[in-house]
Amino acid sequence: MTEDDGVDDELLSIGAFAARSRLSAKALRLYDRLGLLVPAHVDEASGYRYYRASQTERARLVALLRQLDMPLAQVAEVVEAVESDATEAADLLAAYWADVEARVAGQRTLAEYLRGRLSGRSSEMYGKFVVGTVDVPEQVVITETRHTLAGELPAWIGASLTRLEAAARECGGVAGAPYVVYHAEVSMESDGPAESCVPVGDEAAARAWAESRGRAWETKVRVDPAQRLAYTRITKAQVAHPQILAAFEAVEQWIAERGLQQAGPCREVYFADWEAAGPEDAVCDVAFPVR
Q1: What whole-number distance in Å separates Cα of residue 254 and Cα of residue 251?
Q2: Sign of CA dihedral 67, 72, 78, 83
Q3: Residue 217 zone, left/alpha/beta (φ > 0; ψ -120 to 50; rest)
Q4: Residues whose CB falls within 8 Å of the CB of residue 181, separated by 6 or more in sequence, listed in order
Q5: Average pLDDT over residues 259-272
Q6: Which of these, 179, 176, 168, 177, lies nearest to 206 by C-alpha position?
Q7: Rounded to 5 degrees, what are φ and ψ at 271?
Q8: For residue 164, what is the domain's CATH number?
Q9: 121 in a domain, yes or no?
Q10: 3-class SS of residue 152
């Protein structure tokens, strides 16, 4: 018997099934190994795989989902959901595609940003940001530090600031705008670290709180000295990558043009209620300590 011969009327050889399902034999072997599309019968002597005609619909669904560049793990989730709850399967697909569209929108914006830089329009892009300075007094801060890549950064910022703001109630209350310090680049390849900081009113209580936490969340207490920040104010929409890159670069250019020196790592200062803010509401200062 050859691999292209059927065992009986109910079974199809891998070649025949590949033609019917619009999947290659190579893909079928891969999906078998992953448990995504298991043959109905495997000949013990030859190792040939045979499939039932009733598996065609599942195979075609797999093929279509892969045309969307859906990762195999998510394909498996959707295919399994189809057999138990079609609505859940549709919701899984919708969630995946929403993520794709969000990623493409971000890439489109990044491409436009890079086009501007490469075509020499940097000054035009930076010109929309108003840069100034502000003097910040000495303040006690409780902090949480993490090595994180860009894709995980927004969720971690939200979660860590929420934790620290809740902890601030034990430390004399929140005494200033929370901020995030970038001690090294955070990108798709570089993981920082980043440090979330919340100013508090009581240093002794803060140190007692940090001692009770041990190494949980990589928490610390420190006293930030009085310093001057060069900053520009941006909207909630501009916080998204890569718009925020242009804001940071605009501040860096402003610092260089005035002969100032950067005196510490860059930061984002979140002075507004993020959840309540709309896309065009100012929520954040992009800043560098200067001297």
Answers
A1: 5
A2: positive
A3: left
A4: 194, 195, 197, 265, 266, 267
A5: 96
A6: 168
A7: -100, -5
A8: 3.20.80.10
A9: no
A10: helix
Distances (CA, A) of 219 to 168, 216, 228: 12, 6, 25
Q: Please write the tens of the pLDDT for every residue from 122-150.
A: 566 666 899 999 999 999 999 999 999 98
Kindly state the DSSP code that residue 240 receives in the 8-state scheme.
S
**Is 188 inside any structural domain?**
yes
Residue 280 structural domain: 131-290
- Paired strand residues for 227: 136
Per the domain annotation, does 145 fall within a domain?
yes
- Whether 110 has a pLDDT exceeding 90, the answer reads no
Give a yes or no: residue 38 inside a domain.
no
**How many domains, the chain?**
1
Q: Which residues does 149 contact at the CB level (< 8 Å), separation at least 6?
A: 186, 187, 188, 189, 190, 191
Mean pLDDT of 230-258: 90
**pLDDT surpassing 80 at residue 5:** no
- Tell me the two tokens of residue 67: 């045309």
